[in-house]
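Margin note from the TA: students keep mixing up input and output lines. Inputs are the sequences; the output is the structure of the whole complex. Example:
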Amino acid sequence: MISAVEVSKQFPASRQSPVHALDRVSLNVGEGEFVCVVGPSGCGKSTLLQLLGGLEAPSSGRVARRAGPSGIPWASYVFQDFGLLPWLTVRANAAFGLRMTGVARREAERAASTWLERMGLEEFAGAYPDQLSGGMRQRLALARALATGSPVLLMDEPLGALDPQTRRLTQEHLLSLWQTEHKTVVMVTHSVDEAILLGDRVVVMSARPGRVTDVFTVPFPRPRDPDVVDTPEFGRLRARVWGRLRSQAAGEAGASP
Amino acid sequence: MTVFAPIRRITRLAVVRARPGIWLGIAVPLSLLALWQIATAAGAIDPLLFPPPCTIAAALADMARSGELGTHVTATLGRLLPGYALGALTGTLAGFAMGVSRTMNALFSPLFAALYALPKIATLPLLLLVFGLGETPKVLSVAITVFFTLQINTLAGVQHIDPRTREAARSYGARGLRLLRFVLLPGALPGVLTGLRAAAGLGVVVVVAVEFVASERGLGYLIWNSWTLFQPERMYVGLTAVALLGGLFSAAVTLLARWATPWRTPPR
Ligand SMILES: Nc1ncnc2c1ncn2[C@@H]1O[C@H](COP(=O)(O)OP(=O)(O)OP(=O)(O)O)[C@@H](O)[C@H]1O
Ligand SMILES: [Mg+2]
């Protein structure tokens, strides 16, 4: 569905040498696959996501995207800070992606309301994002992304701002959502557990300039039971991923589990 | 999704609280007025300079009944409102254009920055010179002050839109007119409203100042003229009317602001 071939990205720094964010990253994401990306802070994970989605152009290399259905945006995004529009109601935020593709208000809001219901937000349709809790905002960001019907979902630490309980519940929710929706997903996360629980593959990146150092295939079958995290196999995989991540993050401050 | 039922209960919907302090806030000026009244009656202060509140109230009622007060209020509003509307419209447009277009900003920001330091009321003699003694220079005086206030606040409003919000909107394909309608205009609105509120106060200041020196009617004229003729009651009537007018005008703009930005809880 997406294939990045040897993509590099440099940002022209205001002073001194340019920032080399990504170094010859290659990544293939199959249709309907859930890929999680972990790596030390500042290694270019967000940049990679932007390149995959076409929001930024690579400095060198190539990103190929298989076209999805016409009239629907190819990819939808969920950001760590949610990126909601504070002046739009919950209802209008959920419909925002559709409105941007030219769908009329009434129709867009009707389509979005289905997703508000599935996210347990229908009671708050008339409220504003600032009146919601963190977990609700995150679900709203998810509703907005899913309402567009895009075949590809690009998520940048979507659960990073949530408290542990909400995060855990949302992971389970995502697991069951993916089971029914079969989106192609690339998700950046700081949590190894989250990556293994949700992903079909876990991609480990090196410290800046970001390279792909390892790709782990997650062996647990779908539909996946959230309790899989308590099995010994999960523990062994977690230890392997951590081992690689730790060697990358040595020298690099602040990568959290 | 039943999974989220417990979370839903912990929602923090903002609660609008009534302010119990409001009565205390009214009590202070009322006590001061009472004190003033008592002090004049007791001969502690000179009633020629500070006529007691009851005398002022009587003068106000007289002037209201004779229609004289109405004439002055109408004259002042006739300058304030058109000037305010003209300045607000052009100032908002200018600030917005400078906020969204780098070229416009580069072209105009040095000029506006230089002019900003100039007290706009100082241009009144120039306006009188160019436009004569009619209503035009008075309306324009108000408009110029309001223009600069709105220009600077609208520009700040556009520039303060969260870049992450813009980035998120862009990732969903917001461009051109849609970006304008869904992101730039509502995002700049709080800045515009801050400007409108500040301009409401400044507009009243300017219109009164203009009427001091170049007018035969209006509340500013009433105040100034009462001084030259030594009629303190009439002066206080003018002051009271200006205060009420300014207060009502600001309150109206504040109400407009609350209505126009319902997402801002609680409005500051
Ligand atoms: N628009 C930009 N201009 C200049 N430098 C940038 C830009 N975007 C990112 N960078 C730089 O590129 C590097 C990688 O940034 P990126 O945001 O992709 O990292 P990340 O892996 O997502 O980090 P984190 O885990 O903290 O979110 C950083 O050093 C950052 O400073
Ligand atoms: Mg990032």
